[in-house]
Specification:
single chain, 412 residues, globular, MFS_dom, MFS transporter, transmembrane helix, MFS_Transporters, transport
Length: 412
């Protein structure tokens, strides 16, 4: 099938030659697309202080630009999260890469808040299209190893979000600090588009029937089976909290971290912004099991995020780094286990739809709390707002740890 016939949800009219890739190659390609799109979506994190100075925008403007990405991503997950179940995983990923290219180029040429937000929105659309498709593709490629499918999903997503700020900070040292990183990223996306286009894809999950095939792409009301409902809400809640922390790290935290370490180096602030997410990504390689792993991970996250806030008042870079790393490990372990739980309970035919719904709630954590943080920073200052924010996140993690512990004890 060609990309065009997949988008039409029709069989190709003639046999098509192509790259009949191995399972390993397909795994790498699915993960690489998600990783690269998320790197691009987070290249700007260490650049926000520079963009504020160049464009004359406030902290609230930064959070608006950041939230534009998240809200567009959430909208796509709600409206089109199930598309790859019908047009196929490859076609959805091709669309995601093309939209991601457009978003990066718009952001690179932005000279006002409106263009920044437009670029961010296109990046959000791209990540939204790729999220369900990549996750479902990885699960289909590893049907007998669902836990590793979840590990690869979270490794590629968390890894991409973590690498973005660090790569953005390094590339910003080149001429054209606020545009060159996005031009280089666009070149990488073009390189990824070649194997994706040549790949001999499997047919769509549900081939279209009748004269109006596109009706299956209409938005659907989210629904979860009774068996998966408890796991779904726990995973969504943990995801919401996790991404509230990540959203803080990727939007206003670079300026906050620069004060703590007494440095204005963009590579340094980019590295600090990605520490928590990097630790979360690497934690996917740890073999942590046991009944109490989820509550323990949430407890570690809660204590650690409060210590991140305390690092500023103590002016302790060491505490900031240590707490950021431990927060990432605790979050990564807890989210992987609850994510794997809900993924294992969802029927294969609705995997992309349900996982996309989990991510809808998860990504809202990067928008709603962060906008509130931006508003608070406008009135009481970034330092005080960040301190209050970390305390609230710590309390929320503690509550979720208690809920998770009660579920474990109830199961005996």
């Amino acid at each position: 099938m060609t990309v065009f016939s997949e988008l039409r949800m029709r069989q190709a009219t003639a046999a098509r030659s192509g790259w009949d890739a191995s399972t390993t190659a397909r795994l790498v390609l699915a993960g690489a697309v998600m990783f690269t799109l998320l790197v691009g979506a987070n290249l700007a994190s260490p650049l926000y202080p520079l963009l504020q100075a160049e464009l004359g925008i406030t902290s609230l403007g930064v959070t608006i630009a950041f939230a534009s990405y998240v809200l567009a991503l959430v909208a796509v997950l709600m409206l089109a999260g199930h598309w790859s179940d019908h047009i196929g995983r490859r076609a959805a990923l091709v669309l995601a890469v093309l939209v991601g290219l457009a978003g990066g180029l718009v952001f690179a040429n932005a000279d006002n808040l409106l263009m920044l937000s437009a670029g961010r929105m296109l990046q959000g659309v791209a990540v939204g299209l790729a999220t369900g498709a990549s996750s479902a593709a990885l699960r289909e490629l590893l049907p007998s190893r669902p836990e590793w499918a979840s590990r690869f999903t979270l490794l590629s997503s968390s890894g991409g979000v973590a690498a973005g700020p660090a790569i953005g900070g390094l590339l910003s040292l080149l001429p054209g600090a606020t545009s060159t990183p996005f031009f280089i990223h666009a070149a990488v996306l073009l390189l990824l588009l070649v194997p994706l286009w040549l790949l001999k894809a499997r047919p769509a999950i549900h081939p279209a029937e009748g004269p109006r095939p596109y009706t299956v792409l209409a938005p659907r009301r989210p629904s979860v089976s009774r068996e998966a409902r408890g796991a779904f809400w726990l995973a969504s809640s943990v995801g919401f909290l996790s991404f509230a922390v990540f959203g803080f790290c990727l939007s206003l935290a670079p300026g906050y971290f620069a004060v703590v370490v007494h440095a204005d180096s963009r590579p340094m602030t980019g590295l600090l912004a990605g520490l928590t997410l990097g630790a979360s990504a690497l934690s996917q390689l740890l073999k942590v099991r046991g009944r109490f792993a989820v509550p323990a991970g949430l407890a570690v996250l809660g204590v650690s995020i409060v210590l991140v806030g305390a690092a500023a008042s103590l002016s302790s870079p060491v505490l900031l780094v240590a707490a950021s790393l431990s927060a990432g490990v605790g979050q990564g372990i807890a989210f992987r286990l609850v994510f794997n739980d809900v993924a294992g309970k969802v029927e294969a035919s609705r995997h992309a739809q349900i996982i996309s719904t989990v991510y809808v709630i998860t990504y809202l954590g990067s928008a709603v709390p962060v906008i509130g943080l931006g508003l608070a920073a406008s009135f009481i200052g970034l330092g005080a707002a960040a301190s209050y924010f970390t305390v609230v996140c710590g309390l929320a993690a503690t509550v979720l740890a208690v809920i998770s512990l009660r579920r474990v004890l109830r199961k005996g």
